[in-house]
UniProtKB/TrEMBL annotation, chain A:
Source superkingdom: Bacteria
Domain called ABC transporter: residue spans: 2-234
MF terms (GO), sorted A to Z: ATP binding
NCBIfam families: modC_ABC (TIGR02142)
Official protein name in the record: Molybdenum import ATP-binding protein ModC
The keyword Kinase is annotated on this UniProt entry: no
Any matching Pfam family: ABC_tran
UniProt keyword Protease present: no
SMART domains: AAA
Automatic annotation (TrEMBL), chain B:
Protein name per its UniProtKB record: Molybdenum transport system permease
Membrane-protein topology: Multi-pass membrane protein
Pfam families: BPD_transp_1 (PF00528)
Function statement: Part of the binding-protein-dependent transport system for molybdenum; probably responsible for the translocation of the substrate across the membrane.
Protein's UniProt keywords contain Cell wall biogenesis/degradation: no
Family statement: Belongs to the binding-protein-dependent transport system permease family. CysTW subfamily.
Main location: membrane
Chain ranges passing through the membrane: 7-34, 40-65, 77-100, 195-216
Amino acid sequence: MSVRANLTCGLGAFRLAAELSLPGNGVTALFGASGSGKTSLLRCLAGLEPTARGYLEVSGEVWLDSERGIALSTHLRGVGLVFQEASLFAHLDVRRNLEFGLQRTPVAQRRLHWEGALELLGIAHLLERLPTRLSGGERQRVAIARALLASPRMLLLDEPLAALDQPRKDEILPYLDRLHRELAIPMVYVTHAMEEVSRLADHLVLLEAGRVVAAGPLSSTLARPDLPASFEDEIGVIVQAVVAHVDSQYQLAHLSCAVGELRVPRQGLKPADGCRVRIRARDVSLTLHEETDTSILNRLPGMVAAIHPSSHPAQVLVSLLVGELPLVARITRLSCDKLQLQVGSKVWAQIKSAALL
Amino acid sequence: MTTDDWVAIWLTAKLATLTTVLLLGLGTPLAWWLARTDSFWSRCVGALVTMPLVLPPTVLGFYLLLLMGSQGPVGQFTTWLGLGLLPFTFTGLLIASVIYSLPFTVQPLQQAFRAIGARPLEVAATLRASPYDTFFSVVLPLARPGLITAAVMSFAHTVGEFGVVLMIGGNIPGQTRVISVLLYDRVEALEYTQAHYLAAGMLVFSFVVLLGLHLLNRERRV
């Protein structure tokens, strides 16, 4: 399944004009500030925006083609949508909420069975309750299971965690991780929280003022030095890592990943756990020789691959290659000149902090 | 209580029940359309539907009488159909009651539909429910308090109508002489004891109906 879209959609003064193609697998994050058009774009995919015009094709099936007067109704698209507020049907208990979509899905099209969905989201004990008797986190889990039980061809999530407090977010995130790992269903995830993007997404679409400003695989898109100024603080890389061993005396986890070894505070990790680490350009500094008299634990040897101007005239973005893996450092232009950095220079990257996701 | 009383009570109950059934059938789609549309025409229709609330029933009855009379377009049409003239018949009274009580059905339903908002409809659509399916499986159950209020108010309001009955129905026993008209007759004839039976009965009936409605709606909020 893949999505090709060239959409416009007008909502008063706001206008979305997005051209993009999404891969048919994994999690695609639509990321941007409030009002950037990410929710409108999601609603266009679902067919919920009556002002949507243009072209939309999913797995070779045309869902919208304004020139030919085609606009497939939402209930025929087979898309699941999880809203910011769980939006469970207030007149139905959890069981009948879950059955709502399931009963309307032809048996031949059902891909997730009842027990599977209950188990996946840990809601088997809630079946007889009314939505008003659920916590915010439980409600959202039921809403996700309800969407999944309708066996959608694409699951759309509109800031599913934004209305929840941090403990509730921490409660749901592992379930979203599991969906990602265990289901083959493509997901489009709208959020303005970079932590959720870095943790869940495989692909990234950046939106600003109703336009797509960058799109592509997560890590390489975030590592692009030419992102608009508003995204510059987010520039960095996401590294897939495995816990090699745990130093219980200092409570550090030693992670092995493509760039070498990283040491991060342990946070409940066990040996052999997989995890993602985010290294932002603004947290990376450069030295010409390995600095050993420093509090910074993570120091990696690399080579300068490119030097780009930053949106701030005092700074530059240095793309590095550490082994095979790209890394980005944001340093001052003065330092860059003093160290006489140029393409091919050998440097040490000092990582001030690596966020474990 | 005399036979006349029981005939009038039975007639009133029949009129109110049929009016309520017709109103729910007609008023539900009308209220849905009014709740979902915001155009000049929907505003016009909305105002038209609300008019019986502010007009004296005699004004309404007067124009209905003219419309349905032998010179009126509706009257000529019903004559052409072979149905005869509607004023001073039960059918004519039923039609007048439906028009007179229309706002009591449409207003609570319209408010209930508005209160549901767009979200449950969008959720239902993403769960593969067609608009028609959504209306019956989501909208009507969620609007249940509004439906109950609409039904009870329409029934009670029809039981209590007087001016329109007098203009369009007259005073024919078993045909158009409902409780309120019979009560008026009794008072005119100075039969106060007989009048008391009917008047007190209506008083108790109204109180019980409204109390029941309040209790029912309170129960659903808890």
